[in-house]
Amino acid sequence: MRFAIPVFSVGIASALTTALANASNMVIVKLASGYGDIPLAAYGIVKKIDLFPLGVCMGLCQGFMPLVGYNYAAKNYKRMRQASVFSWKTALIIAASFVICFLCFAPWIMGAFIQDTQTGTLGAEFLRIACLAVPLTAVNALIIYML
Length: 147
Hints:
mainly alpha
C-alpha cells in the first residue's frame, strides 16, 4: 500500500489534464452540433489534424522523461537542466513550425481530408484557431512528463 500512494500521486496531473481535455472536447462537440452537420464535421477533421502535433510533442516528451529521471536520480542537476532546456526549445520550435504551417496552409490541409467546399472552408478557419493552442499543448506535455 505504501508504494501505491506515491505512484498514484504522480499520475494525478496527467489524469486531470486528460479528463479536462476530454470534457472540453465533449462540450465543444455538443455546442457545435447545434449548428448542424457541417461545423461538426469540420471540427472533427480539425481535431484529427491537431493530433499530429500532439503526437510529436508526446514523442519528444517520452524521450525527455528518462533523461530527466536518470539525471535527477544521479544528482546530476546540471545535465538534467541542459536536457530540460534543450527539450523546451525543441518543443517550442516544433510548435511554432506547426502554427506557421497550419496558419499558412489550412485550406490545403483540410482539402486533403474532405472535398466539400463549405466544410473545408469552415474547417480551415477552425484549424487556424486551433493551431494557436499547439504551443500550449507542447508546454503542457513537457510539464506533465517532467513532474
